[in-house]
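Thanks for the sequence, V.! I ran AAA family ATPase right away. Repeating your input here for the record:
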Amino acid sequence: MDPVRNPFAPGAGQRPPELAGRDREVDAFEIVLERVSRGRPERSLVLTGLRGVGKTVLLGELRSMAVRAGWGAGKIEARPDADLRRPLSAALHRAIRDLAMRHSAPDRVDEVLGVLKAFAMRSAPDGAKLRDRWQPGIDVPVKAGRADSGDIEIDLVELFTEVAELAADVETGVAILIDEMQDLRPDDVSALCAACHELSQSRAPLVVVGAGLPHLPAVLSASKSYSERLFKYVRIGQLDRPDADFALLAPAEREDASFDTDALDALFEASSGYPYFVQAYGKAAWDAATRSPISAADVKLAAPEAEAELAVGFFGSRYERATPAEREYLRAMADITEGRDDPVPTARIAEHLARRASSLSPARDSLLKKGLVFSAQRGQIAFTVPHFGRFLLTQA
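Predicted structure:
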């Protein structure tokens, strides 16, 4: 099989050749766009799931849908070591530029950009010298008195209100998409929830679409109790068998190739339907095959190559971030579950390691902050990466 024509594309956030199994989420967002544009009430959206299920890809697709609908749209990736002002300012700057193309009053656009610039420049600490202040690259004068108090909760409500009013002027909306939302700082999470709450009450045409790990709803709820009703939560999981098959067959058929039934059986068993793994094993099977249709023997031949690539790029990069104490904790989880992705009681881990639970708290807390595990429910812990336990059992 010609490797140049290989349609499969495993990669972080890289859109697969066929976005299979996400029709429900795409259709739901289409309704959100239409309802908000008509002034109907609608909740912001939060996507949750393990690593490798395609949250980032889906977020990118939703952004593209918003742009095609004539909305202003901006996307950011949250980081635990950075506050929200700078990346959000850049995302909103892009969204406002989208709206400016349709707006008939340049002065009004510049006024909102001035408010955005004031908001962005508050990212510098008080007392910072002029040369140390971040310049956001917005070529309009600062509009003082709005969104520049320094209190992120007050400022975000005022900024979102200004941007939403600009969108309403041209009978459209604004979508802000936030990846890795669980990594936002607590103050920023609280401010974001407060801003979304304020806008939902006024039916302003601005929606936030967040994506993050399975514990993201708990992060939001801990910040604002009403967040349970503020967002629509959508759990993104692995593909079922028909969708996993379609993700392989549709791209292959466009290249005049196919998979036989036994090959599809083997690929689903290897990937468990996780989109990233479907792409990784599909790519390796294509490269290993000499002719179409790709067979189960080709999949068996390709499996070590796919697993080696996953061990380095998908599992290994995360494993390397863990300290020896953290690796001991992770390995204990893998031993207890026998390589499955099941949640593990923290008390069971302490028992397995013959240690006091309190002595393991630093390792557990560090793994939580690094995003390698999440609290599935009170007293339980689980891997954020599917098949990570299976990988750990292969390590010395």
